[in-house]
Amino acid sequence: MANNLGLSIDRSSPVPLYHQVVQGIEAAIHSGALEPGSRLDNEIDLAAQLNLSRPTMRKAMDELVRSGLLVRKRGVGTQVVSSQVRRPLELSSLYDDLTNNGKKPTTEVLSFSHIDADDATLAALQLPAKSKVYHFTRLRKVGGKPLALMENWVRDDIADMDEAMLGAEGLYSILRRGGVNFRLATQRIGAMTANDYQASMLDTAAGSALVTMERTAVDDTGRRVETGHHVYRADSYSFEMTLVQR
Fold first, then answer.
1. Which residues form a coiled coil (predicted)?
2. Mean pLDDT of the 11-17 span
């Protein structure tokens, strides 16, 4: 039996009934048949359409909510959440990660300058007094949707860069072309709520949840190459990591 989403249940299959529902809804979301924001019928109606018990349907919906594909909203019902960019927690750039995953990111350079480094930047990059750095902010989009607001400071004795270059490719690509071999980075991930400026740039509401990242990257000669503060829409972005017991 199938419902209006095309879900079907094979009672002769060894796959548990609730998991068949999970697989069917996952497939509908990934194929685009269920778009972000789509509302699903309530569990009683879905159970009736598929000739399943309500506990079986609830178990399936609970699993989809836990996995981040669905969200329950009071007064609205169950909805498909916006698809997230899931980024592995490793030393790579957002631009490269998106491109390697088949995405087509675009970058709008909001500001660009070549300035005397302030005390905080001198300390972060371990530069001598009166050093200059490139300072710029960028808005990264995927599919036309704002994803990240990024501010970076880069030492200026490695590679020349300008606004056009930063708009056309990722920062790490430019630095690698200048001879940088990235070795390690210190990184802090956190959360905050969007202020008015961040909300306007990221096309979200003020007070919405944002993921934050602060990173300082080091090359294989021990130079601190760049430091940055980035914020990401929490409904569209997450980090993935593998934890190993030692």
1. none
2. 88
